[in-house]
Each structure stands twice: as C-alpha cells, then as structure tokens.
Sequence to fold (279 residues):
Amino acid sequence: MKITIAKHSGFCFGVKRAYDLACAGSRSRGKVYILGKLVHNDDVCRDLRKKRIKEIKSLNEAKEGTIIFTAHGVGPRLYEKVIKKGLKIIDTTCPKVVKAQRLAKNYAKKGYQVIVFGDEKHEEVKGIWEWSGDKVKIIGSLKEAKKLKLEKKKKYCLISQTTQNVEEFKRIKDYLSKASANFVYFNTICDSTDSRQNETRKLAEKNDAVIVVGGRDSANSRRLYEIAKSINLKTYFIENARQLKKNWFSDIKKLAITAGASTPEWAISKVIDKIGKID
Ligand code: SF4
Fold:
C-alpha cells in the first residue's frame, strides 16, 4: 500500500504559535489557566494539563495568576474583565483571527451591516460578533444568506470565520454582490485552511481511501472529512491510531492521510506507524 501524507497536515502556523506561547507561559510563576481548549484536540489538552495549565470554563474559576486566551480569540469585554481582576494575559489569538475581528469592528463603525459566514456557536465567531459591537449577522450557508432581508439603502460587508469552506464563501459572495448594490467582502479564510482543503480534494480523487486525523470537536478537521467524503466514499475520520480498523485497508493500494490544523505531529506519526504494521 502506497501512503501519501498531506503536505498541509497537522499544526498550522497559528496553532503552533499558540501552543508555543502556552508552553512558554506554563513556566510563569503562580497559577496558569486557559479559558476553554487551546485547540479542539484531546491529545493537546492532555499535554497542556501535564504542563500544569488548568483548563477553565469561566473566568470566575481564576482567582490569581495568568490566563491564556486561545487562538480562536475572545471579545473585548473579556479583556476588560481580566484586567479588572488583576490577572496577567497571554493572548495567543491567531493574527488571522485578529484581522477578521478588526474588519468587523471597523466596518460596523463605518455603518456597514457586517455578515459573518461561520458557525454561531464557535468561539471565534462569538469573539468577532463582540468586536463588531454585537451587530453582526451570522450565516452558516448560502441557503441562510438567501433568507437575509436585504435593504436597498444599507451597506453590507461579508467576512468569514477563518476555517470555513472556500467554495461556499465564493457562492455567498456571488449571491450577495448581485443582491445588494452596496456590498464589500473580505475573504478572511486563512491560506492554511484553503491549501489544506484544496490538497484534500486532490488526494481524495487520486487515492483509494483517505484517513483524516482530528479531534471530534475540531471544525476544520471535520470540514476536511466532509470534503474528502464527498469525493471518496472510503474516507474515515479518526481521533487517534486506536480507532483505525484493519478491514478499511483490505483492497486499498493507495492511501492518503491528512489532518486538521489542531492535530499534533505526534498523533499523525502514531497513525502512520500503526498503518505500517497492518498486514
Ligand atoms: S487555521 Fe488559520 S486562522 Fe486558524 S489558527 Fe491556524 S493559521 Fe490561524
């Protein structure tokens, strides 16, 4: 069996940066907390716990010390609360998320109705929403874009959650540019997501099966799975090597392995090792 590993697999620039900043922060004096998960990957979260970084769900759980904000970013109200509490901040917000936050803030200030293509329950989108002064409209698909009641005189600005599907973003942009005369857009989907999705498409076409390695709550990993599955039915989504099944490989000559931006190298290596041992 020939195995091809996607060039764009594992930690992206933003996650690597966040992980390195968090690891450096773990050496700070006093207690170190992280609000939410650094990334949606259990292996990484376990690793951080070992480095004495305590994961908390609410700011009330942190009394003193340092708090880490994740790569997904947070809204301005949280910065204020943390400063008031006298906690130190390690902000690992990815610079590409910061760009989307700034666009939302600036265009909302200029009187545009900001529309975000994204998942309303995702931390990144909640943060962008807050930076706009709680004024954005969030849509998850072209179907939802078509339900928007657009006013002739209003100005609209479309941006995206950084890990959304590029093709769907283009369809939404095409629809809104025809439906509204006052429309601007910024493709804030990050290059890492774009390259990863394009490569996954090609790998799914050229191989007999595809393995996607990623955390079950990782939106970008799940998106890779959906893309590959829509092209190649023999696509499998796993969190770790233990979930591999021998019967997936019985008649497979060419296999591709890809992984989400939050999947650590060590998890991918374990998957490759285990597949190598399947006879
Ligand atoms: S996927 Fe892109 S936006 Fe998200 S953390 Fe990685 S580099 Fe940043």
Q: What stands out?
A: The first strand starts at residue 2 and ends at 5. The first helix runs from residue 13 to 25.
